What we know:
Layout: H1 3-14, E1 20-23, H2 29-40, E2 44-49, H3 53-65, E3 70-74, H4 80-95, E4 102-107, H5 123-148, E5 157-162, H6 166-169, H7 176-195, E6 201-208, E7 211-212, H8 215-218, H9 224-228, E8 238-239, H10 240-251, E9 262-265
Parallel strand pairs: 1-2, 1-4, 2-3, 4-5, 5-6, 6-9, 7-8
Amino acid sequence: MTTAVRKAAVATTTDPGGRTVLVTGGSRGIGAAAALCCAGLGFDVVVNYTRDAGAAQAVVDRIVALGRRAIALQADVSVEAQVLALFAQVDAAQRGGAIGPLHGLVNNAGVVDRAARVEQIDAARLQRMFAINVFGSFLCGREAVKRLSTRHGGPGGAIVNLSSAAARLGGSGQYVDYAAAKGAIDTFTTGLAREVATEGIRVNAVRPGIIETDIHASGGQPDRVQQLAPQVPMQRAGSADEVGRAIAWLISDAASYTTGALLDITGGR
Length: 269
């Protein structure tokens, strides 16, 4: 193969070609970083949010400033009817030319709760934890497969799930329920990756460690990053952008032979 042909082949396999990535929980933190990193690679982006329309629109505005198309769509991914409506809106936006054809899903929407031991955790907390972190990822993954799988006439694509280092560390004394939910995401990733490997869809997960986002404050521990950073071999917390770049790579054709991977982004922790 000549140098010119090799260069052409690389361009063909890495150019998003106006394709779209849907990022759930894309208005802040790792979700916003993933949306911006995907846009930086040339993808159009759907920024899903639950409550903060202003923050989602701010991400959309930054994506548009990068020269890509983007829209913000509200949906609570733990509610099946809202997931169905979300994907119907994505379909309509594609038909109307507001965005390109769907290529990828980033299952980022998730919650943590206040530190608690297992004997302090009630059923309501468990329902919320698994409804958003696990059921939401399943529901969105299901709808993405229906649209992307070559078995259903789709073009193929990629799904990236957000797990956590807690899935292998256990979350003892703080949030074993969150760790268990992320453990379910690991299994979901492995199983779905194998299920659709011959249907043009790659499925991977990232497992962030201690990352500087406001999710820690929402769990009642705003100084958690500072407390735990010394335990990280690299002696610092990670940034949302560092996770976002890994997600964008897994979504892109540059990761064309990667599926079923659980990528730790933990600074060695």
